[in-house]
Amino acid sequence: MFTVGILTTSDMGAKGEREDTSGQTIVDMITAAGFSVEIREVVLDDHSVIVDRLRLWSKKTDLILTTGGTGFGPRDITPEATLEVLERQAPGLSEYMRAGTAEKTTLSYLSRGVAGTRGSCLIVNLPGSPKGVRECLELLLPLLPHAIETMQGPTQQHPQGQT
Predict the structure, then answer these.
(1) H/E stretch holding 62
(2) What is the pLDDT of residue 66?
(3) What CATH number should be reported for the domain whose range is 3-152?
């Protein structure tokens, strides 16, 4: 079973002024897929706090999913904080989410979310809305086990039906 950290970046959420519905959407979907949520927190849109959590959690989990802070707003800094901690980028994951959800809304192309690895942990920025989270995770969930297994050691073959 893979372990997951869920980091919601939201000033209002961190102050208790807004419910973390996007984070809960991640919990519901990721646990239904057989993953174990080990850590979950809502933090301010603060660069140093986000960097700190990503660095710390990447030592404790196989996967970190962030939600929020990926748009064009002046406090949307999750991608920049994530890039600071990534050792290797995985742009295909972010490109896949943007293109795959563009069929439902072209606003998906306004997402600045990034993905990549730190050690043996995969980190992926998801949108801040429950709808955006749901649509992106529907695309990613089939890919995540193989991605994580590959980071943790040699794999013998690609998943069935994949080349």
Answers:
(1) none
(2) 98
(3) 3.40.980.10
